[in-house]
Every structure is written in structure tokens, then in C-alpha cells.
Specification:
- With about 170 residues, the chain is mainly α.
- It has one domain.
- The chain has five helices and no strands.
- It has helices at about 1-40, 45-65, 75-80, 80-115, 130-155.
- The longest helix is centred in the N-terminal third of the chain and has 37 residues, at about 1-40.
Amino acid sequence: MAKMFSKLERYFEPAVIVTTLGVIVVLVFADVVARFAFSTSIAFAGEVARLSFVYMIYFGVSYAIRDRRHMRVTVLLDLAPPELRRVLMLAAEAVFLAYSLAVCWLGIVITRQAAERGRILSATEWPTSVLYSAIIFSGALSAARLVHSIWRIAARGETQLTPQMDV
């Protein structure tokens, strides 16, 4: 069970990102071929490609958090002594965690409102809540990644900004 969770933890976001990118490439290519070769278009291709792009971007956020590759200003961390650096990193991750939880909560609110309004996407006729649920997934996964990062800093004392790459 632990091995399965470890693989899921390591490969989940990359699998989603690669899959959605593949969907985008295939659908956009097929739509271009259909337009130029057959003078028609694939009705759902653009909409599904946009949905895939949104999911790819939002899952990319949690992937960047996992590897501590998200954007940050590090001038204070670079100048701080090790113990202060640890405190600053804990504070920064805690603020980012609060933000991610707020994003998740607001994603739930927006998704619920979209579902209540009964709006649908025009080509696929899927509910718009399918689009907005990417915010929920991203916020929740980011929060989980940040909790893990806070644990790594507090319990293990990790203070490097990016993990060592396996070579």
C-alpha cells in the first residue's frame, strides 16, 4: 500500500499533465486537418482542448509546489542564517497553505454556483462546473503538497529551495 501511495505521489501530476497535453495536441491537430482537408471542424475539439489546458495549468501548480519550483522571492532566505531561514520558510509555506485553502474553498463556492445555475458548455454540453472543478482539485492538491512541505521543513529541517535531482 505504501509503495502504491509513493508511486501515486510521485507520478500523479505528471501523468495528468502529459495526458492533458496529449489531448490538446491530438484535438487541435485533428481540428486543423478537418478544417483544411475537409472544410469542416470538430465541434467539441476546441472546447475539450481548452478544458485540458485549464486542468494542465492547475495541476502544474501543485507539481511545482511538490518540487519547490514555484515562483518565490528568495533574497531574504539567501541572506538569513540557517535557523532563521527555517522559520522564514515555515512562515512562507504557511501563508501559501492559507492561500491554497482559500482557493479551494472559493473553487467549491464557484463550482456549486455554476451547478445551481445549470449552465452548460456549448459544444460538449457538459456542465460548466466541470471547468471550475479544476480550481478545487488544484487548491486541495496544493494544500496537501504544502502540508507535506511544512512537515519536511519542521520535522526534517529541510531548508533547500529545490530538491536534489536524482542523477
